[in-house]
Amino acid sequence: MTRPESLLERYRAFLARPEELFPITLGEGGTPLLKASRLGAELGLDELYLKYEGTSPTGSFKDRGMVLAVNRAASAGARAVVCASTGNTAASAAAYAAAAGLPCFVILPAGKVARGKLAQALVAGARLVMVDGNFDQALTAVRHLGEERAAAVVNSVNPDRLEGQQTAAWEVCDALGRAPDALGLPVGNAGNITAYWRGFSRYADEGLTDSRPRMLGFQADGAAPIVRGEAVPEPETVATAIRIGNPASWAGATAARDESGGSIESVSDDEILAAQREIAQLEGVFCEPASAAGVAGVRKLAREGRVHRSETVVCVLTGHGLKDPDAIGAEEGTLTPVAPDVDAIRAAMGM
Ligand code: F0G
């Protein structure tokens, strides 16, 4: 059997430095672009697609940049890697560091990291440090550790991360045979929107596409610093992945918004959770709450006539729903046991 070409080898011409090798891979990239006909009909869009990053090795888009960052850290002789994280970066760093044989330290906001993400970091042997504070404070501390050269920082302040994350934009264009008209996605630390825009711009500059999409970014109402135009000292949202009050790539996000003629707006926790269920119930795709923010936002813009029926729209589902099972509330009644006989079961089924 031939091994499938790795993500970094596939896009080597755009990424690699001369002679650069990428020995570490977990099979990242190559995530599906799903035509969402039923969800599209609900939103009033004929050409809606979901870029489902939940099929990545650690279940989120973070693997695209982490694979490049850890390959480079390892080949540069790093002795350890460190990151601050709302969970997914930690899970990804832990996995790639394990594959590279490097110790990994993850600095996390106590009580605000989804259970699946914690399990991923733990099982891979990462050393967890919980802070009695939020992600922004954890990242500030990690940047200091990086300056002291205690360990290689693999947050998106490391340029290798955003470089690798451009591959998602390239995959979208390769799958569609063109650039979409609009791209909807969640915004937290704002690295991903920055990387997508760079990726789309690179493809256009290379003449591989003849247009670039409007970038439509969405924050949660309680964690919307870019929308408000000022840092939020105590961000709060059910979408813990994007519970961020002072994004590191703020300038990159506003550049993506302004250069593309797009927008960065916010959606409520209720809208996020409703979109998460809608995506699962209409398309069979389970994403985590933060990931649903893009769909919740595009729904709103479509209703306001700011995204049009005939446009090709891609929403990025950044992470797998199983990472955060606690975000799904039980339906009243369905978890109450009945007698194990057909009459009781038929009655419970409402038939
Ligand atoms: N969606 C998910 C599932 C995420 O985990 C994140 C960020 C985002 C969206 C936002 O992307 O930060 O590039 O704007 N998670 C980071 C982490 C902060 O630590 O895992 P962004």
What does the model show?
The protein is an alpha/beta fold and 351 residues long. Helix content is 42%, strand content 14%. It contains 15 helices and ten strands. The chain has helices at residues 7-10, 12-15, 37-43, 62-75, 88-100, 115-123, 135-147, 159-165, 167-176, 191-205, 225-228, 250-260, 269-283, 289-303, 342-349, and strands spanning 33-35, 47-52, 81-84, 104-109, 127-131, 152-153, 182-186, 214-220, 263-267, 312-317. The strands form two sheets. A six-stranded mixed beta sheet has the order 1-2-10-7-8-9, with helices on both faces. A four-stranded parallel beta sheet has the order 5-4-3-6. β3 (81-84), α5 (88-100) and β4 (104-109) form a beta-alpha-beta unit. α8 crosses α10 (191-205) and α13 (269-283) packs across α14. The longest helix is centred in the middle third of the chain and has 15 residues, at 191-205. It is globular, with a radius of gyration of 20 Å. Residues 60, 62, 85-89, 186-192, 241-242, 288, 290-291, 318-319 line the site of ligand F0G.
